From TrEMBL, chain A:
Record protein name field: GST C-terminal domain-containing protein
BP term (GO), one: positive regulation of DNA damage response, signal transduction by p53 class mediator
Keyword Lyase: no
Organism per entry: Drosophila virilis
CDD domains: GST_C_AIMP3
Encoding gene, per UniProt annotation: Dvir\GJ15092
Membrane spanning stretches: none
Record GO terms (molecular function): ligase activity
Keywords, in A-Z order: Ligase
Matches recorded under PANTHER family: EUKARYOTIC TRANSLATION ELONGATION FACTOR 1 EPSILON-1
Classification via Pfam families: Arc1p_N_like
PROSITE patterns assigned to the protein according to its UniProt record, in alphabetical order: GST_CTER
GST C-terminal domain residues: 48-168
Gene3D superfamilies (UniProt xref): 1.20.1050.10
GO CC terms: aminoacyl-tRNA synthetase multienzyme complex; cytoplasm; nucleus
Automatic annotation (TrEMBL), chain B:
Keyword terms: Acetylation, Aminoacyl-tRNA synthetase, ATP-binding, Cytoplasm, Ligase, Nucleotide-binding, Phosphoprotein, Protein biosynthesis
GO molecular function: aspartate-tRNA ligase activity; ATP binding; RNA binding
General function of this protein: Catalyzes the specific attachment of an amino acid to its cognate tRNA in a 2 step reaction: the amino acid (AA) is first activated by ATP to form AA-AMP and then transferred to the acceptor end of the tRNA.
Organism (species): Drosophila virilis (Fruit fly)
Source superkingdom: Eukaryota
Record has Transmembrane as a keyword: no
EC number: 6.1.1.12
UniProt name for this protein: Aspartate--tRNA ligase, cytoplasmic
Ranges for region Disordered: 1-59
Length: 179, 537
């Protein structure tokens, strides 16, 4: 996830010119913004983009010190655990179950508004969610709801095909036997 | 307290080498006290018993173990009443009832016994008095569960409902009680446990379940539970409705051989039996013989019989032996004549079950969660291509000619339920490439065939099609599938003497009952199921 493409996507999301994004010799992503200042590291880059952005997401992420701290924690979590974990068969199951439990009573990761945390986790987990069968999507009902909700925003799906979540609404209509 | 100190002192002196600790001494004292009490009550009970046994038994002759019924006496003067009919006998004197002891508990001068007859239970009471003696009450309390008893009793109405029985407004005041067939004291499973509803939500409730293997190993006991009684009566209803509805439509019942010389349907595995010096096979389906009956001018036939599939599938919906309800029908010009007949037969069966077997359905619902079965009239018919389109809309990628996998079938069932609100639907015009060689291709579109499947709650229950009735065309299609025509020479021969166009299909009786009730395992609807791991009972 911590690659050039994702950073560019997030930059587009926030409505900020990405500048020059590349990987340095240590394979760490760097951004060279205005005034030729370079920052490296995914979380740091996200913060620098957010500072330059006037979007709702960015503004929400710095509304209070607590929110800022939580957002940073989530971004770290996304980079260190979610992205690599989503590629492992067993860890990913645990991840999905944990997120599903989290979203039972929350619509967003931090507070009641969209923040960078949601973006980071969204992009970290999107490949994994793409690979889920309709039955899985239904089993992780709350996670699916959050994901579907986010992907509706044009700045997030950015013209890419949206994942199909229509079957999660079967949950109340037709539960089916022997599933 | 005084006692304790004394004991401590004596313990100390008696121990000698090891001074017993205060705690140890207390323990010893407690044990001694307990033993004393126990001895005391035992002596009292014995005295009581002796007094009771010695006391004259004024009820002798009115209870006891009956001698084995060898058809010695006709006893035609005894009129027996069944438990559901008892309510019409309240206040009308004594009646005889035969049933099983469901539970019995005696408390001092009274004994409450619950008598069970198939799905009905009624409370019986014996109280020491003029007619009943203490010994009789004791005898009644000691009858092992599941024993068959005859009682003569007076049905009386009760002021408060007896919640634990099906007969809630009356109880039987017993005057005579005889054991006809005594059950072993230790039962491998308790009927109460086997009948307990599967409420996962009850946190406080007893969670004793009897697992499926135990049930199947002791099927005789397991089948006595009210839910199982109801399930198999419903299954009988399905067969009866199938026969009645088809007979009314002019069908004739036939019986086809089960020992055959060659595997009839491609794909499924066959059981081999030794046939004198040769071997033969057990029929996988009556397909070939149904068609021969049509060629023999029977026009419309159906058959109810065993089907044997040697598939090593250990799933919730496969058995190695099951009952097949098969039908075949000649038609004039279009196979939809048959399709609609089959669809309407199903609708009539569902209606019959709903209207005439509602009590059984309710009884099953006491133990298992039963969601009412919804169906449309006339039945919903979708084309295979439409089904594929619905799946694609939901994000499933499947090819135009690809067979539906089980998860896709189930998902399609739920999509259909959500869109049309029906648990039963028909899928018509399956792709030709996934059907057997004797299926008639669609004249208008070479990709499809005149074949259909029917689904209940998203699971397939019937596979059928228009069969090829022209021998030359049949040979062509067989060659196309790479089948050696010499092996099916007899089959092809039956069409050489003029055969009308015909179509049909077959259903699994156990599967239909399982899906109608929404049960989770086919072994629940097979009385003595056979699967790769089970050959007894």
């Amino acid at each position: 996830m911590c690659d050039v493409a994702t950073v560019q996507k997030i930059a587009n999301c926030l409505g900020v010119a990405p500048g020059k994004i590349q990987l340095n010799e240590e394979q760490v992503v760097t951004r060279t913004g205005a005034q030729n200042k370079t920052v490296s590291g995914f979380a740091t880059i996200l913060e620098s983009l957010a500072r330059e952005s006037k979007s709702e997401t960015a503004q929400n992420s710095i509304v209070t010190k607590e929110v800022q701290a939580q957002v940073y924690q989530w971004i770290e979590f996304a980079v260190l655990y979610v992205a690599p974990g989503s590629k492992d068969k067993h860890v990913s199951k645990q991840l999905l179950a944990d997120f599903n439990k989290l979203f039972i009573s929350k619509s967003y990761l931090v507070g009641h508004f969209i923040t960078l945390a949601d973006l980071a986790v969204y992009y970290a987990i999107s490949e994994l969610v793409k690979s889920l069968s309709p039955l899985d999507k239904e089993n992780y009902l709350n996670l699916s709801r959050w994901f579907d909700h986010l992907q509706q925003r044009p700045e997030i799906h950015q013209g890419e095909p949206m994942l199909n979540f229509t079957t999660i609404y079967l949950h109340n209509w037709a539960t089916g036997t022997h599933i | 307290m005084v006692e304790e100190k004394e004991n401590t002192a004596s313990a100390n002196t008696a121990a000698g080498q090891e001074p017993v600790s205060k705690k140890g001494a207390k323990k010893q004292a407690k044990a001694a006290k307990k033993a004393e009490q126990k001895a005391g009550t035992a002596a009292a009970l014995a005295a009581d018993d002796a007094a009771g046994d010695n006391a004259a038994d004024h009820a002798s002759g009115r209870y006891g173990l009956s001698e084995m019924i060898q058809s010695k006496d006709k006893r035609s003067e005894r009129e027996f009443v069944s438990v559901p009919e008892l309510s019409s006998h309240v206040g009308k004197g004594l009646v005889w009832v035969r049933g099983r002891v469901h539970t019995s508990r005696s408390k001092g001068k009274q004994c409450f016994l619950i008598l069970r007859q198939q799905s009905s239970t009624v409370q019986c009471i014996l109280a020491v008095g003029d007619i009943i003696s203490k010994q009789m009450v004791k005898f009644a309390g000691n009858i092992p569960k599941e024993s068959i008893i005859d009682i003569q009793a007076k049905p009386v109405s009760v002021p408060t409902r007896i919640e634990s029985c099906t007969e809630q407004l009356l109880e039987l005041c017993v005057e005579q009680i005889f054991v006809i067939s005594q059950a072993k004291a230790q039962l491998p499973l308790q009927i109460e446990d086997a009948s307990r509803p599967e409420n996962a939500d009850e946190a406080d409730g007893l969670n004793i379940r009897v697992n499926q293997d135990t049930r199947l190993d002791n099927r005789v006991l397991d089948l006595r539970t009210p839910a199982n009684q109801a399930i198999f009566r419903l299954e009988a209803g399905v067969c009866r409705l199938f026969r009645d509805i088809l007979t009314e439509k002019g069908f004739t019942e036939i019986h086809t051989p089960k020992i055959i010389s060659a595997a009839s349907e491609g794909g499924a595995n066959v059981f081999t039996v030794s046939y004198f010096k040769d071997s033969a096979y057990l029929a996988q389906s009556p397909q070939l013989y149904k068609q021969m009956a049509i060629a023999a001018d029977f026009d419309k036939v159906y058959t109810v019989g065993a089907v044997f599939r040697a598939e090593d599938s250990n799933t919730h919906r496969h058995l190695t032996e099951f009952v097949g309800l098969d039908l075949e029908m000649a038609f004039k010009y279009h196979y939809h004549e048959v399709l609609h007949t089959i669809g309407n037969t199903f609708t009539a069966i569902f209606k019959g079950l709903r209207d005439k077997y509602s009590r059984e359905i309710e009884a099953v619902g006491q133990q298992y969660k039963v969601e009412p079965f919804k169906f449309l009239e006339p039945p919903l018919i979708l084309e295979f291509a439409e089904g594929v389109a619905m799946l694609r809309e939901a994000g499933i990628e499947t090819g135009d000619e690809e067979d539906l996998s089980t998860p896709n079938e189930k998902l399609l069932g739920r999509l259909v339920k959500a869109k049309y609100d029906t648990d039963f639907y028909i899928l018509d015009k399956f792709p030709l490439s996934i059907r057997p060689f004797y299926t008639m291709p669609d004249p208008n579109n070479p990709i499809y065939s005149n074949s259909y499947d029917m689904f209940m709650r998203g699971e397939e229950i019937l596979s059928g099609a228009q069969r090829i009735h022209d021998p030359e065309y049949l040979i062509e299609r067989a060659k196309h599938h790479g089948i050696d025509t010499t092996k099916i020479a007899a089959y092809i021969e039956s069409f050489r003497y003029g055969c009308p166009p015909h179509a049909g299909g077959g259903i699994g009786m156990e599967r239909v009952v399982m899906l109608y009730l929404g049960l989770d395992n086919i072994r629940k609807t097979s009385m003595f199921p056979r699967d790769p791991k089970r050959l007894t009972p």
